[in-house]
Amino acid sequence: MRIIIGENYRDMSRVAADMMASQIILKPESVIGLATGGTPIGFYKELVSLHNQGKFSFKQVKTFNLDEYYGLDKNNLQSYHYYMVENLFKHIDIDLNNINIPDGTAKDIEAECKSYEAKIKNAGGIDMQLLGIGINGHIGFNEPDIKFEAITHLVNLDEETIEANSRFFTSIEEVPRSAISMGIKTIMHAKKIILLASGNEKAKVIERMLNGPITPDLPASILQLHPDVTLIVDKEAGELIRE
Ligand code: GLP
User: Fold this and answer.
1) Which of 62, 64, 111, 149 has the greatest number of beta carbons closer than 10 A?
2) Atom 1, ligand 1: which residue's CA is nearest?
3) DSSP character at residue 222
4) pTM to 2 decimals?
5) Domains of the chain by start residue, with CATH
């Protein structure tokens, strides 16, 4: 795993945005996997700014988001769909027919998961996948004890995750208890992966992910086996990394 320790959050965000921009410049029809959460907000700002400078276009890019809360409509302010529109899509020249986010309100969830997986395959697979990480080691919404061979599926969220994500809702009761998420197998099929982490509350999980055993107890540990992962952290999240 390639490790880049940025001076601060802005630095971390810039390095990641530069990598994504390079990917799109080199392959304008790239298939990009996107993440949500607090961590990538700076990354999206930097990416939009590079785009606004005329460095590249999203016209031929296809995107697939990692996950969506079960039951939240795309107009719900807490949905990941809404997040993506606000933080990225409304600022760029992407063709809205090319964006893909699981539909959390689908009547037939199993069919929705199957078709999401098929769409990724038909697009030729993900060229570059952006990831964040939960304090319990989840990636996407693949919580501890997940099956490594899982593809896109409905997952129950851990109490820890519900609590951590309640900061984006008015009360903890409003946080959905489940979500549709790409599985570990879907993520591991991406050709390149960028994992972002910021702040000292992520330092421990980053150290365990890098040096601990590969185990479903820490879903991100599987990334040790991926051939092309770049971990980009700020100083705080990287403080326990042994060089
Ligand atoms: C969320 C998302 C993940 C994200 C993680 C960390 O629950 N499903 O994709 O990486 O938790 O979020 P944050 O960046 O806000 O710490």
Assistant:
1) 64
2) 37
3) G
4) 0.97
5) 2-234 (3.40.50.1360)
